[in-house]
Write a structure and sequence with these properties.
This protein has 278 residues and is α+β, with helices and mostly antiparallel strands. It is 21% helix and 43% strand. The strands form two sheets. Strands 6, 7, 8, 9, 10, 11, 12, 13, 14, 15, 16 and 17 form a twelve-stranded mixed sheet that branches. Strands 5-4-3-2-1-18 form a six-stranded mixed sheet. Strand 1 and strand 2 form a beta hairpin. It is globular and about 50 Å long. It binds 2,6-diaminopimelic acid (API). GO terms for molecular function: diaminopimelate epimerase activity.
Length: 278
């Protein structure tokens, strides 16, 4: 089967947007499709965008085919996609695995509100945990190269006792942060991608949250990653991330999958998209 998708990135964190309003996938194995497409097009994840009772929705699958509840940079790309393709307003909301998120396009940037940082705990002098839609460990240290971040990130992500201790035996993302004058630098090892990515939105938000507590850094906080910078704001306890998104072009992916044997009748939405002028 052939699947059309749009390649995008948010600060270098790369995704394929698969538009299920144009390519209905009910009954197909989205995990298998995600794994195949991410491998063919070298992306960190796949974003399935759709509508549910007239509400824009986004599902995120990592490149290994696991589904996650949230992805900050993915949500920023999905926001831009919905705004440009369907929703002629700059402020709306998108339903995600972590609930409804308010999103905002302004001054060429895309800002998404991730909600409150949850389950914060200090594990030891240098190690913190916080949930910003997905679980993040934040390691406070000094500047380190990509190779070291990858090696240490992988070993922490694979440390069963740590993952169980923070309540996420399935694995945690690991962020290394250090102070960078008024801002912070972040390198994130992402579970599901099993590598350092160019940027991680929820990881940058988690890192800023920890930096504000540990270093006393005042919001808004600029985070620098390999792929660029994000601005993290604290709006009455709700963290938002803002930064650039880019289109990389249209692509086609191939998946060796059979059509599902029986699918509940697929309802094809009318193409007038009047619902989107909310
Ligand atoms: N890159 C994403 C986070 C994905 C996290 C995911 N890899 C996980 O399995 O938790 C972001 O921008 O927030």
């Amino acid at each position: 089967m052939r699947i059309k998708a749009t390649k995008m990135d948010g600060c270098g964190n790369s995704f394929l947007v698969v538009d299920e309003m144009r390519t209905p996938l009910a009954g197909f194995d989205r995990a298998q499709i995600a794994n195949a497409l991410a491998t063919q097009h070298d992306t960190d994840g796949i974003l399935y965008v759709d509508r549910q009772q007239d509400f824009p929705t986004m599902r995120i699958f990592d490149s290994d085919g696991t589904e996650e509840t949230m992805c900050g940079n993915g949500l920023r790309c999905a926001t831009r996609y919905f705004r440009d393709a369907y929703i002629p307003t700059d402020r709306f909301s998108i339903l995600t695995g972590d609930g409804k998120k308010d999103v905002f396009v302004h001054d060429g940037l895309v800002e998404v509100n991730l909600g409150e940082a949850r389950s914060y705990q200090q594990i030891d002098q240098h190690l913190h945990f916080v949930f910003t839609g997905v679980p993040h460990v934040v390691v406070i240290g000094s500047s380190l190269d990509e190779e070291t971040a990858r090696a240490v990130g992988r070993s922490l992500r694979e440390e069963k006792s740590l993952c169980e201790f923070v309540g996420h035996p399935e694995g945690v993302n690991v962020n290394f942060i250090w102070r960078d004058e008024e801002s912070i630098s972040v390198r994130t090892y992402e579970v599901g991608v099993e590598n350092i990515t160019q940027s991680c939105g929820t990881g940058s938000a988690a890192s800023a949250f920890v930096a504000s507590r540990v270093f006393g850094t005042a919001f808004p906080i600029i985070t620098h990653s390999l792929g660029g910078k994000l601005e993290i704001k604290d709006n009455d306890g709700h963290l938002s991330i803002s930064g650039l998104t880019r289109y990389q072009g249209k692509v086609i992916g191939f998946v060796n999958t059979l059509h599902p044997k029986s699918v509940s009748p697929t309802f094809h939405w009318p193409r007038d998209y009047a619902w989107l002028s909310m």
